[in-house]
Specification:
The chain is of the alpha/beta class. The protein is 43% helix and 11% strand. Strand 2 and strand 3 form a beta hairpin. Helix 1 packs across helix 16 and helix 15 crosses helix 17.
Length: 387
Amino acid sequence: MTVITNIQDLKDIYHRRVPKMFYDYCESGSWTEQTFRENTSDYDQLRLRQRVAVDMTGRSTASEMIGQKVAMPVALAPVGMTGMQCADGEIKAARAAEKFGVPFTLSTMSICSIEDVAENTTAPFWFQLYTMRDTGYVSRLIQRAKDAKCSALVITLDLQILGQRHKDLKNGLSAPPKPTLKNMIDLSTKWGWGLEMLKTKRRFFGNIVGHVDDVSDPASLMDWTAQQFDPTLDWDKIKQIKDEWGGKVILKGILDAEDAKMALNVGADAIIVSNHGGRQLDGALSSIKALPAILDAVGDKVEVHMDGGIRSGQDILKAVALGAKGTYIGRTFIYGLGAMGEAGVTKALEVLHKEMDISMALCGHRTMDEVSRDTLLIPKNFGGDWQ
C-alpha cells in the first residue's frame, strides 16, 4: 500500500486510475503550456524566512474568506467535469470540504447538478457562473443557486471565448467519453473507474441537461456549450448579474491591476487572481507573480484571493504571506478525488494543512494573522521588470 505523504503521491495514483482523456483535461494548459507550468514553478522563486526560539504551541490555521470561517485559507476551486474524474465527484468533493471546514465551489460545467450537491451536503457551498448567450438560462441558473442556498456566486470573467487546448482537441473530450476504439482500449485498463461510473446515473452536465431545449445527447450538449460562452461580457453585464444575485459575489480571472480596479467599482466582495489554470491565455503571468501588483492596487479595498499552481502547504503560505486572504485548489483536490474518491480529497486537504502548519511554525508564527511579506524573502522584481 502506498504511503501518502505529499500531493505527488496522490497524483501518481490518479494518473494510473483515471482515463487518459480526463487526466489530460486536468493536467494540461493551452497552446505551449508555458503559463500552466509557470503557475507552479514560480513559487520556487520565493523563499521562506526561518525564525527560531519562538513559542510554537497553540497554533491555528483558521481564517476567514468573505466573512466565512475556514479551517485554513483554502477553498476548492470550480473544476468542470469533476464527476468524470470519479463517479459523483462533485458530491464527494463537497462532502470532504464540508467535513474539513473549507468552502467548495461548484462549476457551471459540473456533472452533478446544483440540486445533487445541495441534497447531499448540509453546509452552504459556492456556485461558479459562466455567463452564457442564453440569458434566460443564466437567470434560471442563478435562481437554482439561490434555491440551493449557495452562499456566494463566483463569476468567471476569463472564458468569453475558449482557449485552444491541444490535448482536449486531440482526445475528443466529451462527457461521457465517446465509444471510439482508442477510448475503449484506454477504458479497458481503468476498470475500477468504470465500475464506479456504471453505478451512477450522473454522467452528463447536470446543470445543463434537462434545463436547456434541444440538448438531448453528448454531441448536442458539447455543441451547445461551445457556442454559448458570451463574448459580449462587459462590466455592465457583470454589475447586472451581481444585482440579480443579491448576495456575496466573487469575481474570478483577474490578472491585471486595472481590471482589479474595475472589479472594485462594480462592488465585488472579493476577486480571484487567476489565469484559469493556464488554460486560457498562454504566455500570461503566473497567478503568484501577478498577485503583488494587484494587491498594491486594491488590496486594502477588496478581499483578494488567488488560485493557480498550488501543490503544497508551503505554496498556500507563500500566497498568504504576499497578501492573499484566501487561496483555491483545483488540480490538487482532483488528484485526490481521482485517486481515492472522497477520502482522497480529505487526504489532499490534510497533506496541505500539515505542510502549511509546520512551515508556519518554523517561520515563527502561530496564527495566519501573523503571516506577512516579512515571512518571505522575495527576489527583486519578482513580478517582472517590464517596459
